[in-house]
Model the fold of this input.
Amino acid sequence: MIERVGIVAKTGLVAAGSSLLEIARWLKARHVEPVFEMHTASLAGADPGWRRLAKDDLPAAVDLILVLAGDGTLLGMADRIAQCGLAVPILGVNFGSLGFLTEITLPELYPALEATLAGTAPIEERLMLRSSVTRRGEVLIERVLLNDVVITRGPLSRMIDVSVSVGDDFVARFHADGIIVSTPTGSTAYNLSAGGPIVHPAVHALVLTPIAPHILTNRPIVIPASEEVRLQPVSRRGDEEIYVTFDGQSGLRLEPDDVVAVGVATHAVRLVHASGRSHFEVLRRKLKWAER
Done:
């Protein structure tokens, strides 16, 4: 039963402004309470009578989150939901340039909402990552995320060295611009740009992809999702700038011998798949396969 729907648009997305109040009124007419994210309420020009909450508070207050944006905004909400230990489904409407996750188009919005409220729209569960950074035995940060954990050099740094282990097995010491650990969902993000494989979201696996490796035989590796990955920056000169980022939403600068651990999270993100398009159809549409 969906009684409250959170509405989130990308900050500053003027193109979505005219649709937001219309969506809210459509929901109210069906006895469903719309709850605006704070900045989205301002974008919509909503009067004070409409309920509004901060992004961090939204997941605990609603039964569904409607995201009008690109994949980045959806990622941020998915990470917040998982960090709260909740399982609120997300329906993504594409206002971005590519949108593998926000695949619903604006003309498809109301049929998709109708099917979701009726309980007939399929919901996909996507594997998420849990990651932590440990420095001298102390955990500095812990995150749950949908796409990827990336270790990369700073803007003025040379190539970096990252020692990688999977489970109890040492894999290699990569000399590269960085390394990506991605989920199947994240395989169409930075991993794809770095030359990594596209992995179907139903596959229970992780992908290790070196970024511009110095040795051309350092290729992407697909590993079982049951294994934990440990990444450790190794200093050659002591002046490298090395960073870890989580879904491109947060991160910190690493010191040599910090340990970044990455494994599968206990929570999955739930994405409403109301378009009826298969994963391969989405790939064909988004990547323009066979159109040249």
User: Anything to note?
Assistant: The chain has a mean pLDDT of 92. The CA atoms of residues 132 and 271 lie 25 Å apart. Helices lie at 17-29, 38-44, 71-83, 109-118, 190-193, 279-287. The longest helix spans residues 17-29.
